[in-house]
Design goal:
single chain, alpha+beta, three-stranded antiparallel sheet, 2 helices
């Protein structure tokens, strides 16, 4: 009867004009190859986020969608919001 707990990337989504990356991390408890429970945690990353501590899959998605144009548009948007 081995009980294990593991963390998995459940979902990675790219949303919105500024290409925010939403990550769902699943914490799964397994006993004898049968899933006992699954809990979800979500977090969102903006194009100016530091992603060095993110899972390699998340980093790959961020690097693919966060072009320099996307990063510049996000920086401009944030600056415009401060002027309001």
């Amino acid at each position: 009867m081995a009980i294990t707990k593991e963390t998995q990337i459940g979902k990675i989504e790219v949303v919105g004009k500024h290409k925010f990356v939403q990550v769902r991390t699943d914490t799964v408890v397994i006993e004898d190859n049968e899933e006992l429970s699954r809990k979800y945690h979500r977090h969102t990353l903006a194009p100016d986020a530091v992603i060095t501590d993110e899972h390699s899959e998340v980093q790959s998605v961020c690097n693919a969608v966060w072009t320099q144009d996307v990063k510049d548009a996000w920086t401009t948007f944030k600056a415009e919001q401060q002027d309001i």
